Fold:
Amino acid sequence: MAERPAFFIRQGKVVSEVYSFEWFSGFAVSQKQKSIASLHNAIIKADKSAKPLEISTKSKETIGIKLSAFNLKLNNYTLENVFQSAKVFERGGPYLDLLDVLPKEVKRDERLRNSGSLRAFRYQNEDFPLIPKTVFYDFIYITAIKKSFLTDEINAISNYNYFTDIEFNPAKSLNTQARTVAMIQLILGEYGYLPDFDKKDFIQYHKEHINT
Structure:
């Protein structure tokens, strides 16, 4: 058995619930998809009205695969590269040369571990705070969606009401595309589209609507 969270909207906020399900070991996509199906069955068992969507390259839904952060680019750079290159530490950063490193290698750069405490994220000459948690990741993810997705593709998110990321383990990491897509659904429900939040407005919206 394993446990993973699902993200959804309750009373105008993005919240999460942890579900226990049967885990199918192995690195094959088919094994991951069995685990996803098991997780989604656990969600549906708890809520008969649930329409879960896996947000990852292992999803069986085309929209779920396309929403994977591994498939998103911002200003022609992968989202992972943008995120890592924006980190500002007490003794260095941002390291903009990380924009051009292979996405699977970027997190291994020693400077990300040897530059002291993380202080902020700097993107397009603006500094984003560490609190609210996940605010910078959510900002660049949503910005990438706005730039690369058609309106119909964005609106398709509203066909689902629970969002999962089978690889996300909250004990080991903080950011997840599943939470951000739930936030997109919340914004769509409120505005009917994804507005152009500036940094200040986005941070305030995040504080009011995201439980992290």
